[in-house]
């Protein structure tokens, strides 16, 4: 093998090794940052989310079907408003039923309010049923910037 052919093969091997190392480092960084690629069977990770209707959303509600996890977070702490989320029975696409529960987060501790099926009672939502969810800001002036969504509590098979 000539010297130039050997050098060419070494450069090619070095380029492949560098690319593989770069991919491994990028994937590791994504995983540590919580942005790793979503697996193909991501149905088990079904999460719905909405925010309050103000220009700079101050409240966020997330619903994860696996475990019936509802999270409410105040995204603008110490602004005089808290975030409050509600879960209602679903009657139809325009009508809600009874309120099942509510969660409130004032944002002061940086930890959202969380309810899950394992809390029992009304937090354990019936599989296959739909529910209405509502997120609002609440302050001395009452509720404001509310948003509604109806989502199904359908865990993947």
From TrEMBL:
It comes from the Bacteria. Residues 1-31 form the signal peptide. Keywords: Signal. This is Secreted protein.
